Amino acid sequence: MSEYLVEVSHLKQYFPVRNGFKTIPLKAVDDVSFNIKPGETLGLVGESGCGKTTVGRTLLRLYKPTSGTVKFEGEEVTDQNIHGLRKEMQMVFQDPYSSLNPRMTVEDIIGEPLDVHKLYKTKEERREKVLALMETVGLNAEHAMRYAHEFSGGQRQRIGIARALAVDPKFIVCDEPVSALDVSIQAQVVNMFEDLQEQRGMAYLFIAHDLLVVQHISDRIAVMYLGHMMELAESDELMNNPIHPYTQSLLSAVPIPDPNTARKSKRIMLEGDVPSPLNMPSGCPFRTRCRYATEQCAQAMPELTDRGDGHQVACWNK
Hints:
The chain has 318 residues and is α/β, with parallel strands linked by helices. It is 31% helix and 23% strand. The chain has helices at residues 52-59, 82-85, 106-116, 123-136, 153-165, 183-200, 211-217, 235-240, 245-252, 259-264, 295-299, and strands at residues 6-19, 22-36, 41-45, 67-72, 75-76, 89-92, 171-175, 203-207, 220-225, 228-234, 305-306, 312-313. The radius of gyration is 21 Å and the shape is globular. The relative contact order is 0.14. The model has no long low-confidence stretch (mean pLDDT 91).
């Protein structure tokens, strides 16, 4: 058995896009590799459109990968075995408003995975399991017969989390699960994810924009830019010692609650615009905005190399 629960190797996800009379590939994810251990949380950060959500969806085979492999418990995930693995790998979607069926009651939404995988013998057992799941995520039993539109955003996200937990998975992809919620509700949901992990020993791929939330919940953090992995390190190590110029810029934008420290900190502004994924620069995709860029950066994309203690960086000049 592998020591890793999830192993991703050279994953690519290209989408064909019509451009006039030609079809060209949009390189949403381009050669990404990482591993996740049982019970670990890997945070995945980067600006909008960098491919974070596509990575999560491709891991669960909601998109068929263009190339590369995804292994779960040492077994390669394929079209043939994905149905059997669905019970072990689940997803909490970003938008709690569009990811729940408006025509189904909460009991049916949470109970649907139990129906699909035939995890109960009687109607009473099904209802008991659904009510137990609702209690786990902080919903009351009287909510069971209501519809999704009767709930707030935070409550809807809890329904989505209960649905993901219904089959008792070992791995959950959390696709920006708190970005649509108020800050006070965000803290409750993040704490709930941590409590559930402690109780059930699940692993998470936690996709988010908010670096402080990611630092709080993650064991390790990976930084993506335009479909490529730029840096991967332990959570505190990455926040305290960012090496890649893009990570440094991202972290300089994080608001600091102490005004004295905030005045001394220097914001690293990036020049230029994010290149189009349909017309990527040669070599390193970040080179057009990087103050350290050289000729070598235009020749080839650097590999992720270990700079000590598992701190991996893809950069020629740092």
